[in-house]
Amino acid sequence: MLKNIFFDLDGTLIDPRIRLHSLFQELAPESEFSFDEYWKIKRQRINQKKILTKWFNYPEEKIHKFKRAWMEKVEEPHRLKQDILFGYTENVLASLSKKYDLYLVTARQFEDRVHSQLEDYNIKSFFKKILVTKQKGPKSELIKNNVSYYPGDIFIGDTGEDVMTAKELGIKTIAVYSGCLSKEILKEYNPDLIVKDVGVFYENSSL
Ligand SMILES: [Mg+2]
């Protein structure tokens, strides 16, 4: 039986790609990647370290500096304003929250900024709890410590870590390719279902 639905935030409910591409351009000024070029590479699961080494010959220490600046800046409030709420998110959450307990589970660093972003989008009230790892541990740990979950529950996310989180908990795993990985890459993690996005998932489900 389904009682709880866990949602990842970035790439699942909102689109953070403009924020992430523009920060990359800012921190690696030698890059001339367009938005599409950058995401075509990233969606193949090529991480920043690989991009900085392979395309721009960054030495170890420059990569280190890039990473530190990235973490410092990536959740700055003015940057978060660049994010876009997917068109279907509000309706899907509104419908599902009538029948199930919804949880937001994100690896963001700053809890207060997650709350204000959700308030800005008017979607905060749909969630029973908002779980933020603050980069201090895995999502699975946070769920284990905060929620009574059941094998029929589902986790919806856009990364391999999200799929592994669900598997770790022994719940159903739904991968969406509206975010940071392609359909082909997500397949490698063997989720129970791969769909284009949360909107398509909801339309085709019996929930
Ligand atoms: Mg995500």
What attributes characterize this protein structure?
14% strand, two-stranded antiparallel sheet, binds magnesium ion, alpha/beta, Rossmann fold, single chain
Compute the gyration radius: what is it?
A: 17 Å
* Helicity, as a percent range: 40-55%
Which molecules are bound in this entry?
Answer: magnesium ion
Strand tally is 8
Mean pLDDT: 97
Beginning-to-end CA distance, first to last residue: 11 Å
Strand order of the largest sheet: 5-4-1-6-7-8
Structural class: alpha/beta
Under CATH, the homologous superfamily of the largest domain reads HAD superfamily/HAD-like
Major sheet size, sense and barrel closure: 6 strands, parallel
Count of discrete alpha- or pi-helical segments spanning 4 or more residues: 11
Give the overall form. Answer: globular
